[in-house]
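Sample pair:
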Amino acid sequence: MSERGIVLGDFIGSLAGLIMFFLIIALFFKFVCDIGLKVQPEDGRLMKRYASAGAVFMAVTIFVSGIIYCFYKGSGSLLDIKNIWNFEPIAEYNGAPSVYNVLTRAFAAVLFERYDDCAFYISALCGMISFITAGFLLRRMFDVVTADRCFILFMCSPASWLLFLPSPYSMLMAMVSLFLYFVVCGRKDISILIAAASCAVHISGTVLIAVWIVLFVFRFYEKYGTIAIFTSVAAAQAVVAAASAVIGWGSVEEYFFITVLPAILCAAGGRWIRRDEIYNCVLSFYIICSAYFLVLHFV
């Protein structure tokens, strides 16, 4: 079989496995609805909408990354996901122990040592969880227009493509989105469990523990409401990012993007988000920066 045929076969196999993981997403959010949260009649429609947006975003990311890779290398295939995404800080699943790495190795042990495919599946699942949870969070907090505009900013944010690439960071962002959602829902018990689990996923997971203590032990959430959540996340992450930069852990993209969702949520309360001229400028800036970060990894 030719090399092109092998690449195509691997891609089709990966795609089939990915579809099965999308089914897991539906079961996951069914569980979320069954643990006592208030479920609105339109939640099913919203989940399909945000899941579809995530799937389209992931497909576009694969396509654009393939074009950049082939252009930079001078040859290759748009479907060669393994080589296209095999660069730091992406391919970390054989590195230090974490929940992400353990899950990748566990699935690979069952699925014939296919580490790359398993890493891709798990990251895709985490990316979809991040998209759907962020969408629900925005619709819970804001009106339809504001929520939709914030969601588009979230999708186009610089380094947002990291959400679906194989690395522990994709799982961390799923944890961050779930944490914010359950805090806003008033579920302190579930949010602390997510915060604790995030520490075993990524070094920046310590941010969520610190934020939970500030919000509920010091009662900042009672005093200042939802604004305390997002400012606490941004402030705690700034400290971790500074320490990580000195030590040499992580990447600029990771340091920046984990603050994007809290920053968008903080800013959404202002009137600028509904002013077309300002919003379009911000959106254009986000897209340009996101494209820059993506191209930067191939040159």
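The radius of gyration is 19 Å.
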